Amino acid sequence: MKKYLNDNPLPFCKGCGHSLVSENTEKALNNLGIKPLDVILVTDIGCHGIIDKAFQTHTVHGLHGRSVALASGVSAGLNNPDKKVLVFLGDGGATIGMQHIINAAHYNYNMTVVIHNNFLYGMTGGQPSEFTPLGFKTPTLSEGADHSNYDICKIVAAAGANYVRRIIGIGDFSEQLTEAFSVKGFSLIEIIEICTSYAVKANPGMKLGKVAEKAGLVAKLYVNEDKKAFVTKVNNAHESLIEQIKVMTVNYKSNIKKPVRIMISGSAGEGVQVAAELLAKSAIISGLNSTKKGSYPVTVGVGFSSSEVIISPEPIKYTGFPSPEILFITSQDGLDYAKATISKMTENDCIYLDNSLNNPETKAKIIKHDYRNKTGSKYASIYALLYYINSSGIFPKEAFYDTFVQNMNSSKVDITTLLN
Amino acid sequence: MNDTNQKIGFIDNSRLITESLVKAGADVFVGYPITPANLLYYYANKRFPSFFAAPDEITTVQLMTGFSACSRIPVTATSFPGFALMIESINMAYMMELPMVIVLVQRLGPATGSATGGAQGDISMVSNIISGGLAIPVFSVSDPVDNWKISAKCVEMAVKLRTPVILITSKEEVMTQFSFDLNKLDEIKPIQRKFYEKDEAFKPYLADESLIPQFLPLTNTKHQVRYTASTHNSNGILQNSTKEALDNTERLHNKNIMHIKDYTFFKYDKQEGAEILIISYGITSMAAINAVETLRIEGIKISLLIVKTLFPIPIEYYNIVDEYNKIIFAEENLTGQYRKAMFGNQPSNKISGVNKMGKMIDPEEIVLKFKELVRETRTKEMGGVNSEQ
Fold it and tell me: How many beta-carbon pairs under 8 angstroms link A with B?
């Protein structure tokens, strides 16, 4: 009486090794004494994949080559080493999904991957896979494969699997399967088979053992270790992201009547983003609304760094702006980056430019000052901003002082001196 | 912002989306890092009960599906390059009817395009990612309160409808920081899941009149569960194209259409007497709101429809459109992707667009388009003579 397979006939061609794998799996699971509904069989596309209807375990049937990744999710989701996650995969699926197999072995997920390696794609007409041995013929390779095959056992052993074995898929190999299934962590067993529909005719007189031997596919145990299997971390006690927000109190008053759009354009590592954030927060504690966005190249540590800040007595509904009213440029990178912006600025706008830079062509008013040398280039943006706050009275300079002290307590800059 | 009852923070929508998803019951984040979804990844790492750094985006959705089959609620965040890799696997989860939320942060394409440039260029793609054109819920929001509410709604609808749900946003929406009154955030309650409880054998794809089958995770030891990505019958057994199996596939579409009223979200700002309607969504809706304010200050009558449920397209949008002579779609892409989703490719006198690529649409551009349209209409009414020339 079968326990894991149902009474339906197995769906494979006469003489196909896949039937033997299913029958030996039945025996091996029985040897383990595991309950059928503690077994999850994950299959994908290929002849082997039509087996799930013959199993009375849980079954999951996914995409071609992705079953190991899917089973990794199942294994991590179950998070229970007493469950048995079995993956049936073909050599075609293993070719597409090689990364997933390596990844699963590397993480040491609780699962056993059974590779049905018959050296070709049986479902689509016998095309070669990366597992097809040199010289092996298929209906689409009448001259024989012109390159050698992957050795999945060596690859997976190198990736860190707990158990790796290759067997020739003839007769009763349920003992080897039992051993592989009983491993905690990741185990893989490669079963060398022959496709009766496509390989036998194409390679007359071929003996399975000989092909494997010639291809360097040694039937042996490669790894049997007991490294710690993967455990999914679950922590339901993380602090709410909203609770973490520092609530700001309005302590100051700004007299601005309409939105002011400010851009800081400088170099990476020179405090542009920090300065912009301090500006926005100072505005907020002065009773204003504020938005801030940053632009920088993907290599964040080099080149330009730019930030756009809007401060407004009214709610800000649109966070973009075509050009700023106030533009700080603290370095050559910043000047180069802001070129297009500068050309759009009008005579009502103002550019605060570092002394070291040449005046760009613009209608905007240019105010030059030495921002880089007073406190060092690292604080060029903050210094420029302070210069502006002091001279414009956009909000009380104490608002900036408070924000600076709260956000930059480790900074070496003497904010009191700077403010004066 | 001087109101003392306010609780002001300096925040961003990535934070709101992440917190809302977790509060609603999402409990595992799987992701591969990509700009401009980085902040979502960062927050997820600090907030989700479980966090997985996947080696690629195909693995991401495969892992998510495995988690979902064990009754966990997975989320990922990506951008076009990653999303493109995910599509086959999203189809798999859709076919298996396993809930999950995918946040797609749009950036400027094609291909790797500009990682730090914003865009609304993936609308056509998300409208039809399910092979066969079957319906999948897609939301787009911009306002912080909407980000809070609708992210939670994504989790709720994914679980209720047993489907992957897509929240489409963009770089400017999830990377911009802003001052915000935290008191505007209503409480979010976690979704309560119901599993199959009967003694009779469980049929994983047998649905009642709701068209939504009951769920059982792979952790259960009472009933056999089968999840299948291939065309299948109500038992989850692979079938080529039997009537039962094809009906099952059709049901996947029909359930999402049938329940659309539960997830139709839009804001219709109607002005009596207006003859022109502006339609927008996501990042550009901010510019549209601004443009409408400007026009109304000038005494011009204008209505605005902000669509938040992008797909499947709710019938209400067409009913609203029927009230107007002219429609202007404002969206940050070259070809008018949502306009075409609603009205196809045929040129129409009624429908026009404000479109742009590589930079946010400015409210002024919408105002100009509106005025141009009014001028054209007037010219036609006067027999082709433009009075302003």
Answer: 217
Question: Is B296 an interface residue toward A (CB < 8 Å)?
Answer: no
Q: Residue A189 gets which letter from DSSP?
A: E
Is the minimum CB–CB distance between B360 and chain A shorter than 8 Å? yes
Q: Is B287 on the interface with A (CB under 8 A)?
A: yes
Interface test with B, best of A39, A55, A66 (most B CBs within 10 A): A66
> Which residues lie closer than 8 Å to B233 by C-beta, 6 or more apart?
B205, B239, B242, B244, B245, B248
State in words which class domain A17-224 has.
alpha beta
Q: Which residues lie below 8 Å from residue A59, measured CB to CB, with a gap of 6+?
A: A40, A41, A42, A43, A52, A53, B224, B225, B226, B227, B228, B236
Q: What is the 3-state secondary structure (H, E, C) of chain B?
A: CCCCCCCEEEEEHHHHHHHHHHHHCCCEEEECCCCCCHHHHHHHHHHCCEEEECCCHHHHHHHHHHHHHCCCCEEEEECHHHHHHHHHHHHHHHHHCCCEEEEEEECECCCCCECCCCCCCCHHHHHCCCCCCCCCCEEECCCHHHHHHHHHHHHHHHHHHCCEEEEEEEHHHHHCEEEEEHHHCCCCCCCCCCECCCCCCCCCCCECCCCCECECCCCCCCCCCEEECCCECCCCCECCCCHHHHHHHHHHHHHHHHCHHHHCCEEEECCCCCCEEEEECHHHHHHHHHHHHHHHHCCCCCEEEEECEEECCCHHHHHHHCCCCEEEEEECCCCCHHHHHHHCCCCCCCEEEEECCCCCCCHHHHHHHHHHHHHHHHHHHCCCCCCCC
Residue of B nearest to A321 (CA): B362
CATH number for the segment(s) B1-263: 3.40.50.970
Q: How far is it between the farthest Cα atoms of chain A?
A: 95
DSSP letter at A215 equals T
Q: Give the model's pLDDT for residue A159.
A: 98
Nearest CA in chain B to A248: B8
Chain A touched by B35 (CB under 8 Å)? yes
> Which among A80, A248, A287 has CB closest to B9?
A248
CB spacing of A290 vs B10 below 8 angstroms: yes
**A260-419 is classed CATH 3.40.920.10:** yes
Residues 121-150 of B with CB under 8 A from A: none
Phi, psi dihedrals of residue A50, rounded to the nearest 5°:
-80, 5
Q: How far apart are CA B228 and CA B236, in angstroms?
A: 6
Task: For chain A, give every domain's residue range.
Answer: 17-224, 260-419
Q: What is the pLDDT of residues A73-85, one digit of tens each?
A: 999 999 999 999 9
Res. B258 pLDDT band, cuts 50 70 90: very high
3-state DSSP call for residue A152?
Answer: helix
What whole-number distance in Å separates Cα of residue B162 and Cα of residue B93?
Answer: 9
Condensed to tens digits (0 to 9), the pLDDT of residues B55-70 reads 999 999 999 999 999 9
Q: Which of A266, A313, A268, A308 is nearest to A291 (CA)?
A: A308
How many of the other CB atoms lie within 10 Å of CB of B297? 8
Q: Which two tokens stand for residue B264?
A: 């139709």
> What does the pLDDT read at residue B379?
86
Of the partner residues B19, B223, B364, the one whose CB lies closest to the CB of residue A240: B19
Strand A186-192 to strand A111-117: parallel, antiparallel, or no bridges (unpaired)?
Answer: parallel
Enumerate the domain spans of chain B.
1-263, 265-381
pLDDT in tens, A310-345: 999 999 999 998 899 999 999 999 999 999 999 999
CATH number of B265-381: 3.40.50.920
Residue A372 — very low, low, confident or very high, per pLDDT cuts 50/70/90? confident
